[in-house]
Amino acid sequence: MEITFEHVTHSYDANSPMANLGLDDVSLKINDKKFTAIVGQTGSGKSTLVRHINALLKPTAGKIIVGDRVITSETNNKNLKPLRKKVGMVFQFPESQLFEETVEKDIMFGPMNFGFSESEAKDAAHKMIELVGLNQDYLQKSPFDLSGGQMRRVAIAGVLASNPETIILDEPTAGLDPVGRHEIMDLFKSLQTKGKTIILITHNMDDVANYADEMAVMSQGKLVASGLPSDVFNSQKLLEDDLLTLPQSAQFAQSLAKKYFQFDKLPITIDELSAEIKQQVNGD
Amino acid sequence: MEKIISIKNLNYTYPDSKKPAINNLTVDIYKNEWLSIVGKNGSGKSTLTKLIDGLIDADSGTIEIDGQEINEKNIWEVRTKIGIVFQNPDHQFVGATVEDDVAFGLENQGMPREQMVKEVDHALELVGMHKFKKRDPQTLSGGQKQRVAIAGVLATRPQIIIMDESTSMLDPEGRRTVLNLIQELRQQQDLTIISITHDISETELSQRIVVLNDGQIVRDDIPRNIYDMGTDLSKYGLEEPFSDELMSTLRNSVELPESYLNEEELMKRLWKLRSNM
Ligand SMILES: Nc1ncnc2c1ncn2[C@@H]1O[C@H](COP(=O)(O)OP(=O)(O)OP(=O)(O)O)[C@@H](O)[C@H]1O
Ligand SMILES: Nc1ncnc2c1ncn2[C@@H]1O[C@H](COP(=O)(O)OP(=O)(O)OP(=O)(O)O)[C@@H](O)[C@H]1O
Ligand SMILES: [Mg+2]
Ligand SMILES: [Mg+2]
């Protein structure tokens, strides 16, 4: 589904003296079936932005168009189920998403809520738990008797189980061990190649460079850049204004360029970097 | 070196669980060191933290803190020496506002109000959250919550700080700033830092890395030797530092040494190769 933000502003506590702008006039198009990364400093509005896509938050002004749905400040809370069936969201803190007695029931909740039969939901739970790197033994445990990273995996399984068209991931790999992080990122990428739209909030710029087709940069509630990662990470302006951190490969290339080396465009992945170095060292 | 924590033959199995979460673990932690604890999800890192703070009681084994073996009677006193930033900051918040929340630990210490206000302001300034002091902590963004949780611990000025993945939701710049701050405090105030992390670049700040697996310590060494474990790293859920990964991809066509080089060393090596061309 294509998702379009048109001049979206969100004011928290709009009527109180503590009012603050979570989003400030954001216009952005998120393309269908693409892997889009959203980055930006702490408090820049990333979580606020994505919560508008399934109408967990309503805009104070402007509108969001999600497929054939339009969300405005007037949108009421009735009849949001079809939207939420299409747009699944893994929250920033996985515990906020877990509530059933067992992991199995927890993963089954979404699918059953969206019309799967009990046996279909059970099958989905058994399949998903393995996909997120846990074995079947975990299904009968309480989701609260798990380690942080295990909870995260269960929360991801729960969202994937209902097979949503668009998957929003709010820092889904925070708390995962590095091996798990790569596995889960590969899983998201494979879902995208099978036709899903992936929206990923992350602070890991290497993951952006390695997995995302497109990226958006937020700062103080505003969208400050969007485009291809290779272009955005090469934007002098963003770097000078400290709105963006480079992937490790680009940082390394930048330092390397202090002597003898020269890069027309900063490499953003380790493969690009190593190809450049080989060429410049060996002259081939 | 003076021991600040000494753990001997520690065992713990959660009720209803078959497998021990901590399995005959022995380790000494020294005053003023920065120790990283790493390992797979579920390897026992957070459980160890809870045992050190007496939030759960070991099935067997002993924990000595600053020369005192912890037991039911002295746990409250011992706990004032330790500040823990828990993995999920939501579990830590008790106050209705950010400033109340940070003040909570100080109130418990019986600090006079005037001094308390000063300490709270100071701690919030250190982590860059001063502007948010009137806010309900529940309404903060993920990274803002983590900063406030860190302030809450800094305010009580403990001798030992345990950070359980407490910078996992900070942006790269913010993470660097907070870790540098902790490093400075460690040097100035003789603090001991135990940092649980999945971020391999963060471990470069530490003097020693302990690798946990299935509740046991499988490696205990200086960072450089840990990074040199090569493919064994992934067995324990870890990844190579960036410079190592880059070296592996370069090795087939660029001449490089076998052992670990940090980024600076690698860069110098590449400059040399390039200048010889
Ligand atoms: N319920 C709320 N009430 C008032 N302000 C809020 C609320 N939720 C968020 N904010 C504020 O809005 C701003 C944007 O928050 P948001 O959670 O979208 O940030 P973020 O980019 O996701 O940050 P992080 O990377 O730290 O998670 C922050 O300054 C935050 O404090
Ligand atoms: N409250 C609990 N009840 C029962 N088992 C638990 C509980 N908390 C954790 N466990 C189990 O104990 C083991 C160790 O968990 P712990 O939380 O210490 O892991 P961790 O190393 O901190 O992992 P992570 O990196 O995911 O945070 C795991 O297998 C976990 O499932
Ligand atoms: Mg957020
Ligand atoms: Mg943990």
From TrEMBL, chain A:
The UniProt record lists the keyword Hydrolase: no
Any idea which GO molecular function terms this record carries?
ATP binding; ATP hydrolysis activity; ATPase-coupled transmembrane transporter activity
Origin superkingdom: Bacteria
A cellular component annotation (GO) from this entry: ATP-binding cassette (ABC) transporter complex
The record gives the membrane topology as: Peripheral membrane protein
Which keywords accompany this UniProt record? ATP-binding, Cell membrane, Membrane, Nucleotide-binding, Translocase, Transport
What name does UniProt use for this protein? Energy-coupling factor transporter ATP-binding protein EcfA2
UniProtKB/TrEMBL annotation, chain B:
Cellular localization per UniProt: Cell membrane
Which part of the chain is the ABC transporter domain? Answer: 5-239
Q: What are the protein's UniProt keywords?
A: ATP-binding, Cell membrane, Membrane, Nucleotide-binding, Translocase, Transport
CDD domains recorded for this chain? ABC_cobalt_CbiO_domain1
Q: What is its main location?
A: membrane
Q: Does the keyword Nucleotide-binding apply?
A: yes
One Pfam family matching this protein: ABC_tran
GO molecular function, a single term? ATPase-coupled transmembrane transporter activity
Q: How does it sit in the membrane?
A: Peripheral membrane protein
Among SMART domains, the record links this protein to: AAA
Output the Gene Ontology cellular-component terms. Answer: ATP-binding cassette (ABC) transporter complex
Fetch the PROSITE patterns from UniProt.
ABC_TRANSPORTER_1, ABC_TRANSPORTER_2
UniProt xrefs under PANTHER family: ENERGY-COUPLING FACTOR TRANSPORTER ATP-BINDING PROTEIN ECFA1, HEAVY METAL TRANSPORTER
NCBIfam families documented for this protein: ECF_ATPase_1 (TIGR04520), PRK13648.1 (NF010167)
Family assignment?
Belongs to the ABC transporter superfamily.
Q: What is this protein called?
A: Cobalt transporter ATP-binding subunit
